[in-house]
Amino acid sequence: MASIAEMFHPLQAYLHNSKRKFEEKWRRPLVERGKLDDFKILQTLGTGSFGRVMLVKPKKDNNSSYALKMLEKAHVVKTKQVKHTISEIKTMDAFEFPFLITLEYFFKNNVYLCLVMPFINGGEMFSHLRQQKKFSEELTRFYSAQVILAFEYIHYVGIVYRDLKPENILVDKDGYLKLTDYGFCKKIDDQRTYTLCGTPEYLAPEIILSQGYNKSVDWWALGILMFEMAAGYPPFYARDPMKIYEKIVSGKYIPANHFSKSLKDLIGNILQVDRTKRYGILKDGSKDVKTHQFFKGFEWDSVFQKKLQSPFIPPTTGAGDASNFDFYEETPMKTSSKVLFAKEFERIEV
User: Fold this and answer.
1) Catalytic, out of 37, 61, 163, 321
2) Residue range 233-277, pLDDT digits in tens
3) Is the dihedral angle over the CA atoms 127, 133, 139, 144 positive or is it negative?
4) In degrees to the nearest 10, what's the CA dihedral of 93, 29, 341, 92?
5) Is residue 163 annotated as part of the catalytic site, yes or no?
6) 263 lies in which domain range?
7) Is 215 annotated as a binding residue?
């Protein structure tokens, strides 16, 4: 139960109200909003095994831009990802937090499931990290803080994220972050789960060892991300995934020479193979991370309310500018005269 003092704290007050809202949206079946014909498709922003993400504009509002994620129903069914995909859509619809991508519209056509999200025109963190080689500790601190706040919310509503990496973090026009891609999100509340999923370099030891895990894996991934942002490469790396796993389970890595003492110490306390020592999941939870010397004097409320100036503003020329995204060859969308897999996606509910 939150204390009176905590209730007047902006983040605590937000979290206190957010769980009920999340649960209400999570439980009810998702109602379709919009249709593909409402949007003008401009270009591809990204592709994957799931389908693709397109930059679109509503035909009735030329000033707005959105990202349209098109999931091919046939692929989802073939790969036995129906339950996962429905969970991803429901999660995106139920989330409501400044540093998380949310669902604006959802609809289906004969071939695709269509998720319409805000278009975040600053591009992926991955692209900026690749261009800058590594981030300053100031920028690492600013970005890490937003991921920490996002995790506080995600975990508070009972979700484990499981896919933190620079490719899944978008930077908006003001230099603030949005976590995206909820394909590995799972509502576990206080339970454990055993699924092996995630990106090799970011997997926690307990995932690799099939020990059963909870939100501990997200805090481990935060330590990996902080290291990669500040160094330009992850702490555990090899060409062969099995070698990566061996290194992760050993927990041995070499901090970059330029890391400050406080950054080195915080990463060391998060990248603990022994979960009884890992920051983020001890008795005081996220407070151990937020009150660490690395964040001394940091204005958490100002970041949560987006009042702090970002150390880095991505170059953009307007709301619909896609220049921060890679170029993709355009391919025609698949069509069908009949509704495919109607039964599997009849109701979007968990």
Assistant:
1) 163
2) 999 999 999 999 999 999 999 999 999 999 999 999 999 999 999
3) positive
4) 10
5) yes
6) 125-304
7) no
